[in-house]
Design brief:
The protein has 323 residues and is of the alpha/beta class. The protein folds into 2 domains: 103 residues, no CATH class; 203 residues, Nucleic acid-binding proteins (OB fold (Dihydrolipoamide Acetyltransferase, E2P), Beta Barrel), CATH 2.40.50.140. The protein contains 11 helices and 7 strands. The N and C termini lie far apart (63 Å).
């Protein structure tokens, strides 16, 4: 390539590098970066933007130097000029420019029901825990006189035997240990369950969303009849009746590529009034039901309020849980 045109390629490279750095800065500034990665990864992405800026600045310097005829040389004995066919260079640059344009032109949206339907909504958040340990619900059932049998497609009605009174259940450590037995792998969930059981209304906070729902699901029999309050987006599929929907969230480990939808089945007589993907906050009573051939935890909703989507719409595993 002649000295006159030697500045073209480094100029294009500088534009692309600055473009990616600017896109990252835009996502961070607008908090839309959380649509794509978990908060613990944000720092590394910010650092990568600094690296892109530095590389872009070097390419810009190279372009300016080439424009003024200052050809850079080295002692390696190889020609580093871009002498390929223009159409080949256009294809290579296009591979970088196309996703960058998509990033700026396409709207930034969080994951919702459409992806949840493709991945499959997980209504049994304690499945992985149950598969690696004994069923605690079986041991806990002996604490009560008669465990209730759910009716297919309907929720169990809370009764006095569903959740022992607080004075009985929280009276001694021995009683609580009997109510919430555990193995080494589930000890943290049992401790969390004992704390939750003492509350009149069990909150499901953002920072312990996964762990709290897993605890409630793991000890579903013991928590039957207890009140719970949680938020999420409305999800539906063809297997649900007009009284049912799922209040769901996406669990993210690292980035949106590994996002997994999970949630809780909700039973409410006016469920149809809430549109799919609408964010809601629900207060209701925990029960159990037969759904799609499986016995699941269900929330018999008593109050439902429409809310704005939170800043962080995904939930993340809490590394300090159980420590």
């Amino acid at each position: 390539m002649s000295n006159r045109g030697a500045w073209v390629h480094p100029s294009i490279k500088a534009i692309l590098l600055f473009g990616f750095a600017a896109y990252i800065a835009y996502l961070v500034k607008s908090d839309r970066i959380l649509f794509y990665i978990s908060p613990r990864m944000v720092l590394y992405v910010k650092l990568s933007a600094l690296g892109l800026y530095a590389a872009g600045a070097y390419q810009l310097y190279t372009a300016v130097a080439a424009y003024w005829g200052k050809r850079q040389t080295c002692d390696c004995g190889h020609d580093h000029s871009d002498n390929g066919a223009p159409w080949k260079s256009a294809i290579v640059y296009g591979l970088f420019a196309f996703p960058l344009l998509l990033g700026f032109l396409m709207p930034d949206t969080s994951l919702g029901s459409s992806l949840a339907a493709k991945k499959g909504m997980n209504l049994n958040s304690a499945a992985s825990v149950k598969s690696s340990s004994a069923q605690p619900g079986q041991a806990g059932a002996s604490y009560r006189e008669q465990p209730q049998e759910p009716v297919s497609g309907t929720t169990t009605s809370p009764t006095s035997s569903s959740a022992p009174p607080l004075s009985e259940a929280a009276g001694s450590g021995a009683q609580m240990e009997k109510l919430f037995p555990f193995e080494p792998f589930t000890e943290a969930f049992a401790k969390h369950a004992r704390k939750l059981y003492k509350l009149n209304v069990i909150p499901v906070p953002e920072e312990l969303y996964i762990e709290t729902l897993t605890t409630l699901d793991l000890y579903a029999e013991q928590f039957t009849g207890k009140k719970v309050k949680l938020s999420g987006f409305v999800y539906r599929d063809d297997t649900m009746n007009t009284r049912q929907f799922v209040i769901g969230r996406f669990s993210v480990q690292c980035c949106s590529a590994d996002a997994a939808p999970f949630g809780v089945l909700v039973d409410y007589d006016r469920a149809a009034a809430y549109a799919t993907d609408q964010w809601v906050e629900i207060t209701g009573t925990i029960g159990r039901t037969k759904f799609d051939g499986s016995e699941l935890m269900v929330v018999k909703a008593e109050q439902i309020a429409k809310i704005e989507p939170p800043k962080e719409q995904y939930v993340y595993p809490n590394s300090e849980f159980g420590s």
